[in-house]
Write a structure and sequence with these properties.
CATH class of the largest domain: Alpha Beta
Strand content: 15-25%
Radius of gyration: 29 Å
Structural class: alpha/beta
Strand order of the largest sheet: 1-4-5-6-7-9-13-14
Helix content: 25-40%
Oligomer: single chain
CATH superfamily of the largest domain: Glycosidases
Largest sheet: 8 strands, parallel, barrel
CATH architecture of the largest domain: Alpha-Beta Barrel
Number of domains: 2
Length: 726
């Protein structure tokens, strides 16, 4: 850990082991990090100088030191030492200890101290420790809100848990310093602030005093003059206990600031403005407790202000020890960059800010439910672990730039995040009539074929996400015209070109070979060559028609291509020529498209025929993977922003016959599915041969949401459209 050198990049592995009832939720197992020691080499490649790393009590010695198993930690900590990465060892991360103790019991103090001493003896080269991560936050979630064990819900329990954690931290550091006297305490805490309406100013003041309580206790500052002293007494905390803590303070050597978009809160007594799930109170007033970013006109307080407040209050070196945002890749990049720039600004004001920590480096599961459920909701970090091996995301590239150069050239880093745009406001606060989409220095995405349903869906997704986009229809740009393409690429200077201008009429292609070849081979090849010359990335589309359909199950990316119609042959040639011209190109194969803004797809046709009271014939011997356009568009953007390359299969998770799909659509809209008549494909008079098996799966990462989920979205959109027209 450098002493007042340049701003360093640290990393952290989401390692929460929290208890809900009698069940433990283990993030290390869910992300697979516990089985991948090669992850540590990936951290080194990012340029991190230190890593917050777990030697967790619940995993290492759940039944006491006599049966402790340090083998996992031995292997990992020795490897980190070989890589030259400093380690900040964490012992309890949002946990309550092994089953035989809890945050409410004195055994938590003695047990953690015993483990801490053993860890220090086993790894004498480790200097930095976080015995208990975010003690106030953990106490709130466990003893005030009841989310985690021991599931208490009162202020007295909150304070009891916090005092136990404080004593445990003191005892752990004493045990560690008996082995290594110069050991340092890196104490983390979520330090968001609270604002309110004037009527609730007293409650906001209380919350803002309490935000410092875990640190004030460690510094020995909680005495008769402390603003919360009477509150502690009212909740049963004895003066003698506070005096003992103050007599043996354990001030942090580094304060770790954890700051999330949900950290800053806003309290509002006007309950009618907010949904019922935000309602609460203090016994005196009822009020809504919501994220400040969603209602406060000024938005969040921001990293710079929080760091300034910490420095002014304690005068202790600081690090931002968690930077994570569960959102799209470009917003994750913007949040990291904002944290980095906030840290630099605080340093310029004189604060001793040492580092910014890339948190949840390998992602996290189910934090949208505060890890109280195992629903499988995954948020990627610098790496996405859902494929065969962790895949670097845009965050990895940006983090590497920050570590080496202190700044990033990522094309989407310069735009304001959603928390800086007007669409963040959900409740009450006025919105301006204009919306800032990008800063002038942001290079755009160029979408060709924007008049088609796929191009329009991609343009719409860019606009929803605040991504600067230049969308051009086939009439505005013919990608098979080399000189026109060259002029546009040079003028727009896109960082990414998305080609949605392909020929899509599968059956007509049998008679329109030249037109199909021009649009699906010549044009994409010219586009790839232009992208190579101008340093732009390229995303193009293909389909399951590159396969012959003879496989028994769905096709994955590595299966050999073997088209059986003219359309598929053109797509195969287009894929190969594009990748030959631009090896970094991203090729996305999709299933049969449908979406809320189109009326010519198979799905829309089936619905319209049945709605008219007519019968609809559909093949029951051809299998397909329907692909919902909004899901496809957003996932394609995610992959492109992450600089993914090569062939990817993207379709909603489900393979079924066209007849079954038509029946499913009818059922979803309350139409009579008996109007759908299954039949063999050869009886439909189709011009082109179609592959019997047209299903797609991916061996590279998780697929899109399931088809039923897509249908729910589709039905809701149709219902919203009808209501809006009334």
């Amino acid at each position: 850990m450098s002493e007042r050198a340049g701003l360093a990049l640290w990393a952290g592995v989401e390692c929460t082991v929290n208890r809900v009832g009698d069940r433990y939720f283990n993030q290390l197992e869910r992300t697979g990090h516990h089985a991948r020691i090669t992850d540590l080499d990936r951290l080194a490649e990012l340029g991190v100088t230190a890593v917050r790393y777990p030697v967790l009590w619940e995993r290492t010695a759940p039944n006491g030191l006599q049966s402790a198993d340090f083998s996992w930690a031995d292997e990992r900590l020795h490897r980190l030492r070989e890589l030259g990465i400093d380690v900040i060892v964490g012992l309890v991360h949002h946990g309550s200890g092994p089953p035989w103790t809890s945050l409410m019991e004195d055994s938590f103090v003695s047990g953690l101290a015993e483990l801490a001493g053993a860890v220090a003896e086993r790894y004498p080269w480790v200097r930095d420790f976080t015995p208990v991560n975010e003690p106030l936050t953990t106490a709130r979630f466990s003893a005030l809100y009841g989310h985690w064990y021991p599931h208490r819900r009162d202020s007295a329990s909150l304070l009891r848990a916090l005092l136990v954690e404080t004593r445990a931290t003191q005892a752990a550091m004493r045990a560690i310093r008996r082995v290594r006297p110069d050991a340092r305490l890196v104490q983390t805490e979520d330090l968001g602030a609270t604002a309110s309406t004037p009527r609730l100013a007293y409650q906001a003041a209380f919350e803002n005093h309490r935000r410092w309580l875990s640190l004030d206790l460690l510094y020995g500052r909680v005495d008769a003059a402390h603003p919360l002293h009477q509150h502690l007494r009212d909740c049963g905390v004895a003066d003698e206990e506070l005096a003992r803590l103050a007599a043996e303070p354990c001030p942090p050597d580094v304060i770790g600031v954890n700051y999330y978009l949900t950290s800053d809160r806003f309290l509002d007594h006007r309950l009618e403005r907010y949904p019922s799930w935000t309602h609460g109170g203090n016994g005196r007033d009822a009020y809504a407790d919501v994220e400040a970013v969603r209602v406060r006109e000024e938005g969040i307080f921001g990293h710079q202000r929080v760091l300034r407040e910490v420095w002014q209050r304690y005068g202790t070196p600081i690090a931002i020890t968690e930077v994570h945002l569960g959102c799209t890749p470009e917003e994750q990049v913007r949040w990291l960059v904002e944290a980095w720039e906030g840290a630099l600004a605080a340093r310029a004001e004189g604060a001793d800010v040492r580092a910014v920590t890339l948190w949840s480096t390998f992602g996290a599961y189910d934090w949208d439910s505060l890890v109280t459920q195992a629903r499988g909701h995954y948020e990627p970090g610098a790496f996405d672990v859902r494929g065969p091996a962790p895949r670097p995301t845009a965050l990895a590239a940006v983090a590497k730039e920050l570590a080496s150069a202190g700044r990033t050239e990522h094309p989407l880093a310069g735009a304001p995040g959603w928390w800086r745009r007007d669409e963040r406001l959900l409740y009450g606060a006025p919105r301006s009539t204009t919306r800032t989409i990008c800063r002038s220095r942001e290079r755009p995405i160029l979408i060709t074929g924007a008049g088609g349903v796929l191009g329009a869906a991609l343009a719409r997704a860019c606009e929803e996400r605040g991504i600067h986009v230049r969308a051009m229809t086939r009439g505005e740009l013919d990608i098979a015209d080399a000189s026109a393409m060259e002029r546009v690429i040079a003028d727009v200077h896109p960082w990414l070109v998305v080609n949605a201008a392909g020929y899509t009429r599968v059956h007509d292609a049998e008679d329109e070979l030249e037109a199909c070849h021009r649009a699906n081979v010549v044009g994409p090849t010219l586009l790839a060559e232009a992208c190579r010359r101008h340093g732009s990335r390229l995303l193009m589309f293909s389909s399951s028609f590159v396969f012959d359909g003879s496989k028994s199950g769905p096709y994955v990316e590595d299966d050999p291509v073997a088209p059986i119609n003219a359309f598929g042959e053109a797509q195969v040639l287009g894929e190969k020529s594009v990748v030959d011209a631009l090896p970094s190109a991203l090729v996305v194969r999709t299933g049969s498209l449908f979406g809320p803004f189109e009326a010519r797809s198979f799905a829309a046709l089936a619905l319209s025929v049945v709605q008219r009271g007519e019968d609809f014939r559909a093949a029951d011997d051809l299998l397909v993977s329907p692909t919902y356009l909004p899901h496809l568009a957003h996932t394609c953007l995610d992959l492109a922003i992450d600089q993914a390359e090569g062939v990817w299969h993207l379709a909603n998770d489900g393979v079924l016959s066209f007849a079954s799909w038509a029946k499913m659509m009818c059922d979803a809209f309350g139409l009579p599915s008996r109007a759908v008549h299954p039949c063999p494909a050869h009886t439909l008079g189709l011009r082109a041969n179609l592959p019997r098996q047209g299903g797609l799966h991916s061996c590279r990462r998780a697929t899109l949401p399931t088809l039923p989920e897509a249908l729910l979205h589709y039905v809701k959109h149709r219902a919203d459209t009808v209501l809006a027209a009334m």
